[in-house]
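Input chain follows. Return structure tokens only.
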Amino acid sequence: MNRALRRLVRSPGYFALSVVLLTAGVASNALVYAAAEALLWNPFHVQASGNLYAILRGTSSAPFRNDHFATMREAIASSLALTGFTARDAPVRIGEAPPEIIGSVEAHRDYFDVVRPAFAMGRGFSTTPGDREVVVSRRLWARRFAARPDVLGQTVLVHGQALTVVGVLDEFVGTTVGFDADVFVPVDLLPLFSGQEVGGSLLLPTSRFLQVLARSTGARSPADLEARMVDEDRRIQAGLGIRTAASAEPLSLQPASSAAIRGPSRAHVERMTLLVGAVAALIFVAACANVIGLVIARLEGRRQELGIQVALGATRSQIFRSEMLEVICITAFAIVGGLVLAGVGQRVLAAWPVTLVGRVPLRLDVNARVALLSTCVAVCAVTVSGTWPLWRACARRPMDSLVPAASRTVAPRTTGRLLFVALQVAACSALTVSSLLAFSQVRAELERPLGFDPTRLLAATIDATHPAHAQSGEQMTSWIPDLQTAAGALPGVESVALTDFAPLSGGAAERRLVVNGEALTVHAVGADSTYFSTLRMPVVAGRALRTDGRAEVVVNAAMWSMLRARGVALGHLVRLADDGPNAGPLTLVGVVGDARHVSPEAAPAPTVYLPLLAQVESARRVVLLLRMRDRQDQHLGAVRRLVGDRLPDVPIWRMDWIEDRYALALRPARVLLMSLLGGGLLTLGLAMTGILALLTYVVGRSRREMGIRAALGATPSRAYLAIASRVVSAACAGLLAGGIAGWLGGHLLVGGGQRATIGSVIAGVTVVALMVSLSVLAPSTRARRWDAATLMREE
């Protein structure tokens, strides 16, 4: 080992380049493994996640009535341990701070025994019904308790009820992907939270509202467990007399990790993981292959040294072990460097959180399992790939090794290496072109108008629907004008507006608008008289809503085009096809521009804007929109204090900057873009390294041929280019194939509705062509210093 390290130190260029190449491959693979574990394998951070299952009935995650669940749990206790839970938002008050809406889980008291999350301190629920206990997450402990060790025993108000903190979880935030829970409370406390009437009804034997998780307690296969569960289900339903269409659907036992992300969201996550994984695998394979090329080039330069060792009595196995130790040392340094680099990447992504489609959070954790898997893959790949060139070099006869390679008259066989260079250049070109096409798509999304100005726009959502702080619509209409006036008097506020759906909130109410007897499905948004001016939405015809207007309606441009096709003009009377608010005739008074209320990528839907006060009477939800003169965090505290002073029992459900929502919505595309650009740059560097290694090998084996060409009158540069033409031809073939593959991949990335621009394809191919040209032409500067006598002397 010491001799191998000394040899590597004497060749710093070879050692550094090999370590850097493998480090990039190990780091990229470690991050992909961490992403796959966080999203697909163990998204909940629990122990023995492979034995945790979700029970579904058809597509429903609430498969049992309460009495059915209790009977089922006893019947299959020897094979499966069942527990139930439900997830929802809850008002939480800690200390003297105003109430805050926080994600909560109400679960059976054996929930933590079944799920088995790790605890930072404390314990789970006791087995005594009625104990007022709460378990909090680590991040709530750090944010609201400053990570104090005396948190156990502290009092937290959940739904207005005092509960005692008995435990702090480690990384666990619930078993509902896309819904992070920070407080966990026993489900038997529901009558305290929701009132005896509502909470008691949920705990009735015939109530069905709990999601069910199961952990296998034996060695039976999932198929056997599911078959037994289905048999018991039929028997129990017959005994309880359950005869409904929903209960007729079959039960299924699915791994909790796969059941957590279902449908389009899971397909999207798997597609993105496979895409990034393919890039990482390509980088790692290319890195290993380039290390093989470097090893071959290094052994080619040490042919005579190895031949002398064999002539002096060294066995081939001894030489093989000695050279293999060099590869092992390089691999060890690369694994350490790759894991360190992956840890840095984990910290970068933690500081820049990403939420994928379906509100699936991405939390990377380069833990011991990821490190072990990355290490095993790296060791196996490098060992297998390094064995062939080393054994090939050791298998030469001593006389073949002592004869200089340049004196051979037979041209080196480089077909396999040329093919690999072509594949490297093709992969590099495909990734570069795809990255540029994705960049053009992201830029188009950034330049796509939202229809309103999100900058310095603060949204505070006040929800008064929960029984613990319920208010009637009449009560809300009494304090809404005063709240708007007080918010407008806050320092730094330009204008204030009220609505029932904040922009980019991910949804809107769907209503049916009756126009000339025809019912049209539209999005309905409640708005006040200052809504359009605060959001800076242009009024293209007519006027905005008035302060006292209760029988008016304003439509967007998409809706206006539909109305004009039906002969409707301003002043026309329309109505909503329901008995809710605004059920009477509404006068069409104005048209505003299209706005993307749901998400930046969703096309503007036909939308009607209705008077807010009438909407509040049924929805009992209002969003306070404040256009600020500057963006400072102190504005959030001022708004929270204002609402807390005037509405001490009504918490703010959500408060954030609209431009942050916009940036968050575009972040998945940016992460994918960065992954592709990073992969393209790495593969570009690997392709250049592979070409240089191959040129070193080819030129080293063809120096006599170059000397003959130079003696016949060719310049050293022309002689070099004649030898390198085979490499150039392979690179050109790879460039053409990669450009076509990148163009096709770009179509898949940007979606079927977008057209890949030829400019991006040309730009990507040009960049790769320039880098390949540099890697081919760079050695020609050294070739100019050669002369025929020097080259021929080596014979």
